[in-house]
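Tokens as discussed.
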């Protein structure tokens, strides 16, 4: 294997591992519609890797969320894909059952179950297709390892470059940055101020408080109906930036930004108090806030993730939502 190919394969493998972990963690969290994102992501990726020129997303074509049994299809190759994070035999049996119920075997010769992350080491269950189509549990259940092995067979450096670039470009929004710059904090405050709103504070309320993990876990999360799963899978990864954000905002040079930050926090807090009867958990309020942020013209890598980092640290520092 050439050094160029080896480096590309390593980069592709690392990015695939990240995409799978991210989707699995977020799968139960409504805030990030991960499986919808995954379908689009793997549609493009499979097209690149396997040269499917007509692979489509059924949800988009039919305007029906959770189209029965399958997510992607290529009518030219008569192949259909189910994209899932559930590697259980029950999930596979359910997919096959729906595939038969909706007579999809009349359109597609092959059904592939793609497991995001790892499939089971073995499947002892017999998957009954009623002899309507062939389903081989050894060949027709794919996962990341299978995908990497297929990519490894590609010798076209240009194609590997294309796959590698696709992964890097499409995952940049979801990767946690190595470092949150002062300019990132400033930009995020500006976007919140622009797209949400601000509420004036009296001078005596200009205060930023840093809290500890136990207070958040034992008092604040239950008070705001934030589940431990949500906190663990979404917020906790962003707390490593807390000290830097806190130090930046307390710097006298950044007094005006500190005021902007606190007035954004006040606006979010008042929105929550006004509408808390609408939401059964604060997890959904996070989603409502992000739905108001329009970053289409903010040409900065990873800006959506940086906005999440700042919002989650607002919560952690008790600058927003109920604290007692």
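Sequence:
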């Amino acid at each position: 294997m050439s050094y160029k190919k080896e480096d590309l394969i390593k980069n592709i493998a690392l990015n695939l591992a990240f995409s799978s972990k991210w989707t699995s963690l977020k799968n139960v969290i409504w805030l990030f519609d991960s499986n919808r994102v995954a379908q689009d992501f793997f549609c493009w990726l499979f097209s690149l890797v396997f040269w499917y020129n007509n692979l489509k997303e059924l949800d988009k074509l039919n305007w029906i969320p959770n189209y029965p049994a399958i997510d992607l299809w290529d009518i030219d190759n008569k192949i259909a894909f189910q994209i899932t994070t559930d590697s259980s035999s029950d999930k596979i049996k359910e997919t096959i059952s729906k595939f038969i119920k909706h007579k999809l075997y009349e359109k597609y010769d092959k059904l592939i179950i793609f497991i995001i992350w790892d499939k089971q080491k073995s499947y002892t269950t017999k998957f009954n297709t009623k002899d309507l189509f062939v389903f081989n549990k050894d060949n027709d259940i794919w996962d990341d390892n299978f995908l990497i092995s297929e990519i490894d067979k590609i010798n076209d450096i240009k194609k590997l470059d294309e796959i590698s670039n696709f992964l890097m470009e499409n995952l940049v929004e979801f990767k946690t940055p190595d470092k949150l710059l002062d300019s990132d904090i400033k930009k995020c405050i500006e976007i919140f101020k622009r797209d949400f709103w601000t509420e004036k504070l009296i001078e005596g309320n200009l205060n930023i408080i840093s809290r500890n993990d136990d207070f958040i876990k034992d008092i604040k999360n239950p008070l705001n109906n934030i589940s431990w799963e949500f906190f663990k899978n979404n917020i906790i990864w962003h707390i490593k930036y807390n000290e830097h954000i806190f130090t930046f905002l307390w710097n006298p040079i950044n007094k005006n930004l500190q005021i902007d930050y606190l007035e954004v926090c006040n606006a979010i807090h008042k929105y929550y108090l006004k509408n808390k009867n609408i939401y059964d958990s604060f997890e959904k309020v996070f989603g409502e806030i992000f739905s108001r942020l329009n970053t289409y013209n903010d040409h900065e890598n990873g800006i959506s993730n940086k906005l999440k980092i700042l919002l989650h640290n607002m919560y952690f520092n008790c600058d927003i939502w109920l604290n007692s």
